[in-house]
Structure formats: C-alpha cells, structure tokens
Amino acid sequence: MGRPRSFDREQALDTAMRVFWERGYAETSVADLTARLGISAPSLYAAFGDKRTLFEEAVARYEASPESVTTAGTTGTTPREVLEKMLDSAAREYVSDDHPRGCLVNSSPELAANREHNREITATRLREVADDDALNAEALSSYVHSVLMGMSSLARDGAGEDELRRVADVALLAALPAERARR
Fold it and tell me: What's the whole-model pTM score?
C-alpha cells in the first residue's frame, strides 16, 4: 500500500497553473514546480505524471474557469455582445490582482492548438447569433482573438484596466463599423 499524499492535489494544481502562467512552460523547471508546490519530485511525478501532463492539466483548469474570456463570449446574443463580453472580461481579468497578469493561453507558444480551438468556439457563437449571412465569423473571431493577444501582452507589460478598455473600445469600432452608423 502506497503512502497517502501529504498535499492537496487541487491546490497544487492551482499553484502549478500560476507558475506556468508567470514563467511559461519552457522556462518552468521541475525544480521550480517542486519548490513552489513544496513537494518532492517523486511526489510530483506520482500525482501528475510528468511536467507536460501537469501543464496540460493546469491549462485545462485555466480554460474551464468561469472567468475564461472565451467562455464570456459564448453568453453573447448578438455579434456585438459576443465581442463586448470577451473584451470586457479580458480588460478586467488580464489585470486582476488575483492571479498573474495577461492570459496563460495567449502567452504560451505551446498552446497554439488551444488558441485555434478558442477561435473556433468564438466563430461558432458568432455564426449562431448573426442575423446577417454576410458576417465573416472566422475573420471576426481571428480579429478579436488577435486583439486579445495584444491586450494580454499589454497587461503583462504593466498596462492598467483603463488602457485595456480603450483598446477594447477601438477594437469594437473597427470590428463592427456598421454598428456605428446605426447609433
């Protein structure tokens, strides 16, 4: 019979997520993880397998968060509202004091497939709520996710929420110029 774990796996996963968020996958060593988690390397391997598996679990936890920017967009009922909700969430979440700045997924080169999946989620929602067949959901999704990547970088570089909100406002005007004429 193996020894019971002497740590809370869920708390360890949260801590690992923050380490990867702060440092990135490539720059985070097993030694960094064990130091922050307060566990030995054998305990880390027993609980999570290897560094890559731990990273994937941490990313899945991050993306499942109710504060996820992509998830916020899925509650929009018009294309404008989809983008507004995503950009508003990003402006707030990317500078929150509750976690590292920026976006874990947007700042990790290893997560290109996750970013593509998030663009697909957004494009699908845009198609679902569009009342105009001319709306290019894929291009609009790529655009807003490009803006989100820029907002994440700005936040990591120290920008505040007000600056991110100004970027979001300009992005909305650029993304949906026909909306300006209707106001």
Answer: 0.88
